[in-house]
Design a protein that fits this description.
- The chain is α/β, with parallel strands linked by helices.
- It contains eleven helices and 17 strands.
- The chain has helices at residues 16-28, 35-42, 46-58, 123-139, 181-189, 198-209, 266-275, 279-297, 307-311, 313-330, 347-358; strands at 33-34, 62-68, 76-81, 87-93, 97-104, 109-116, 149-156, 160-161, 166-167, 193-197, 216-221, 225-231, 234-235, 301-305, 339-341, 369-371, 377-379.
- The strands form five sheets. It has a five-stranded mixed beta sheet. Strands 13-12-11-14-15 form a five-stranded mixed beta sheet, with helices on both faces. A three-stranded antiparallel beta sheet has the order 1-3-2.
- Helix 6 packs across helix 11 and helix 8 crosses helix 10 (313-330).
- The two termini are 18 Å apart.
Length: 381
Amino acid sequence: MNRSNSGANLPTLRSHNAALVLDLLRVAGERGISRLELAERTGLTPQAVSKITARLRAEGLATDAGHRASTGGKPRTVLRLVPDAGYAVGMHLDRDELTVVLVDLAGAVAASRTAPLDFGAPADEVVAVAAYAVAAVRDGGAQPVELPVLGVGVAVPGPLDHRGGVLHRVTGFPQWDGYPLRDALAARTGLPVVVDKDTNAAALGLALRAAGAGDFAYLHLGTGLGAGLVLGGGLHRGARTGAGEFGHQTVQLDGPVCSCGGRGCIEALCLAAVARGDVAEAARVLGTGAANLVGLLDIDRVMLGGRTVAADPDAYVRGVRAVIDERARLGGIDAPVPVTAAGGGDRPVAEGAAQLVLAPLFGRVAGADVAGADGGAVLVP
């Protein structure tokens, strides 16, 4: 496979059917899956599956994984994904820290890097630091050859325009308003780039890992507070990609002024409780917002994450669950939605950012416009 400096080109993946087959290979893991099983699960003809798998093998994306006993006739050849046939860089640009990971096609982290970051510095300086981190994590892989990197997924605080990769007035950092982060980082790295909110990236990664989780909200409490929503089997960004601004719902009309300019926002109240060390109050405030989401969207699960939650996950899960359970009891609901901790601190955000690049290759989410290495727009298959 060609391992060039620019983003890797995988023409086979432009086929929807090939993406379905590739996703089943990914899910099967090392155990692999036979062509007959692929045909049964995709609804494709055995001939179509044979053609697709032949192309995947020719391009180095699939390989033999042995044989499986058959109920009749000769043993079936089993195929598996080749994880190191492609990689994606996932990056979390938080207000005070940068986390970047190199992830293979199977979702395994091959390299990672964390460093302090001043998100309030001039935007061009932040982009230069981010570009250096991308280069460092690519060079930090275990393989001695140039890795086929498909692109860079970047997760940042919102609000932003996901389609255009342009940031809006990030709470507390108005200088980012209108900055074309996607194009700027693509020009610096020579790789395709896709940008999304940190909470959306984390929710995407969790949805891919937690099959069957149903509709859920991922609530991220770190230097800020936001939500990622998975509804109807897909990531919900909203018509203007502004969904999930969970932290700026007003819960106290005469409350303290928030950095967004409003009063009584759940983020301001929650972070104030965190600052004074009152974890129980922070969890209660977070639970109030979570209960509002449950009542509004009738979701199946609430997941909590972020470095603040990671510092005392049991306390936050208990506190949020108590509010949701009480709200359910008052509403006559016998089975309130479960509350769990996602784990990993901020790491799921960076890993989810890598999935912004990888997931469309497996037909798991709709493609998104990304900036190409030449600064133009390309379509992720």
